[in-house]
């Protein structure tokens, strides 16, 4: 697949952060090579680790199923 995220909101508070927005994705059917467009919204929640890096701890994707699925 090929996906593009368009962040609309990004906030941090202490060791937690979130990013939310919309996405557009092109899915490719393995059997036929057919391309199917999909879009929707997402939210990703991050937690800062003791090393200082950020790790995704939860994510949600919503959208309209591609036609024919």
Number of helices: 0
Strand order of the largest sheet: 1-2-3-4
Query: What would you report as the Rg, rounded to the nearest angstrom?
Result: 15 Å
Overall geometry: elongated
Class by helix and strand content?
A: mainly beta
Instruction: Note the main sheet.
Output: 4 strands, antiparallel
Strand count: 4
N-end to C-end Cα span: 16 Å
Helix and strand pattern: EEEE
Q: What are the low-pLDDT stretches, counting only 5+ consecutive residues below 50?
A: none
Helix content: under 10%
Average pLDDT confidence is: 92
Strand content: over 45%
Characteristic terms for this protein:
69 residues; mainly beta; four-stranded antiparallel beta sheet
In short:
By secondary structure, this protein is mainly β. The protein is 0% helix and 72% strand.
What can you tell me about this protein's structure?
The chain has 69 residues and is an all-beta fold. The chain is built from no helices and 4 strands. The protein has strands at residues 2-13, 16-28, 35-48, 54-64. The chain has a 4-stranded antiparallel sheet with strand order 1-2-3-4, with no helix packed on it. Strand 2 (16-28) and strand 3 (35-48) form a beta hairpin. The radius of gyration is 15 Å and the shape is elongated. The model has no long low-confidence stretch (mean pLDDT 92).
